[in-house]
Amino acid sequence: MSHRATVIACVNQKGGTGKTTTCENLGIGLAAEGKKVLVVDTDPQGSLTIALGYPRPDELPITLTDMMQKVMLEETIAPGEGIIHHSEGVDLMPANISLSGLEVSLVNAMSRESILKQYLDTVNKQYDYILLDCMPSLGMLTINALAASDNVVIPVQVAYLPAKGLEQLLMTVNKVKRQINPKLRIDGILLTMVDNRTNYAKDIASLIRETYGEKIKVFDTEIPHSVRAAEIAAEGTSIFKHDPKGKVAEAYKNLTKEVIANGEARRKHRLEQLR
To answer: Which of 18, 52, 102, 172 has its CA 20 to 30 A from that of 45?
Structure first.
């Protein structure tokens, strides 16, 4: 196993783009490929926690809030503290509404952008991948997630033109890269909820590829629109369990392979530079 996990943030400040679904299914997809994976819910709404089968996150005894508070108070974190093992092979660090109170107190914290990173540093060596599901805003928690990450995956819903929001997000990523985390890079834009029956969706998909494709990778894999994918959030299972032979499961398998291949290519490139 590599000495430290690759940390990937699923980010888009617009809600409803498929961030949580992507974080969950990419995580479980990576686990199915034999990788050790921790998924971290960094959204006070607890969408990822709910999606993984904990419908009442506010009742959980330990969440990310407690871990980040311990970092701020310089208290010791026990190995595996608060981490939940999911039946589909991933580990989960859950979140609930208490995280929004913590976000407010982060504003006055020392090295406030790196609190999440300091927590992840305590568990980093146990995993190959750590995936962060970000809240739909560009506030302090999202900045913490970007400061702690190696790569960013940006899910974009192909139902409308995302141009404005995407520009703002890219500016934020670049700012974090310049000021806080120089190793941050965009793994790719992921087109989600693609309804290939409509020309409109095809047009927007090609437009995004044309507009951003030169500067930023747009994943070859597109996540199709599907009613079944919408059902899984209520069930607490991944798409692989809910509809294993469906087109969405197939798409997330392909995305998993692309993410692994991207990582391998980057590692190879780094080794060549060292020679």
So the answer is: 172
